[in-house]
Amino acid sequence: MNTSQQKQSESLHFQSVSFTGLAPGARLIVLGAVHGNETCGTQAIRRVIGEIESGQLGIMAGQVTFVPVTNPLAYALHRRMGDRNLNRNLVPTDTPTEFEDRIANWLCPLLAQHDALLDLHSFHTAGKPFVMLGPLDNSGALEPFARSAEETALALRLGVHRFVDGWLDTYAAGVARRVAAGVSAREADARYGVGTTEFMRAHGGIALTLECGQHDDPAAPAVAYQAICNTLAHLGLTAAAAPQAVTDTEALSLYQVIDRVHAEDAFSRHWSSFDRLHAGDLIGTRHDGTPVRADTDGYVVFPNPNALPGQEWFYLAKPSRRV
Known about the structure:
Layout: H1 3-10, E1 17-20, E2 23-31, H2 40-54, E3 61-67, H3 72-77, H4 99-112, E4 116-123, E5 130-132, H5 148-155, E6 162-165, H6 167-180, H7 196-202, E7 206-214, H8 220-234, E8 250-260, E9 266-267, E10 275-277, E11 282-285, E12 291-293, E13 298-301, E14 311-319
Parallel strand pairs: 2-3, 2-4, 4-7, 5-6, 6-8
Antiparallel strand pairs: 1-3, 5-7, 8-14, 9-11, 10-13, 11-12, 13-14
Helix pairs in contact: 2-8
């Protein structure tokens, strides 16, 4: 953190707003701006808070906690992160050195007090909104889980039709490749793939990341708003009718992550998430001229032309029957 950022961070604060109904019920937490340039969730959260405070929307049971701006430094800087990516290596620490460490020390205990998480994001390039699902029920060492049916049921009621899973498994496989290549940075640790949803599941909750559209898409705040309202109704926190599960669904599974290894690695074209790929298609070229091609038919996901060397450049996905 440079001197200017240090001074700016000292004037920041963390904010959460909670509402509790008269009857017992689920405890939901909704996050916006985990990445500071992803503001659709912030806008939607503030709209819902205003409706609750005005009496237009009532919390009848349970509790909902809203965090409009989860990363205030990144938000103030109008960029993805302050010192580092908050949605990686999310864990409390006794020795905070980066601003995101201080967020984690505040945020992680708050997450652990809740049963369900809706984390609202947006993405770099054009594309349709989608939900990131957690793993199926399993007792494995990487991400054991026992509530996939509940999580999927909520996902089907957020109002979007595309579903993606396989995040942490794919990230861990990428870590294994980094280790084999002799990378010793913190990105070469499977725990670095743990963000808000992984932390929530590890503490007994269900958790969904909703990617509401491109960062500047004027429709993205409305996608986020509808998802919040549907979640509140589905979990029984409001008196609104329970939303119906969407139909006409599309499910994909991530299976490989490709890192950017040099600042001059370049895409072959302007890629958007879920652009189709055919085996052999040229996706990009390394700085030394080595082509990067699709290994099979599938889709490109999360292409990031501004990725830092050593971090995720893009993911590959294939069709799934999960949903």
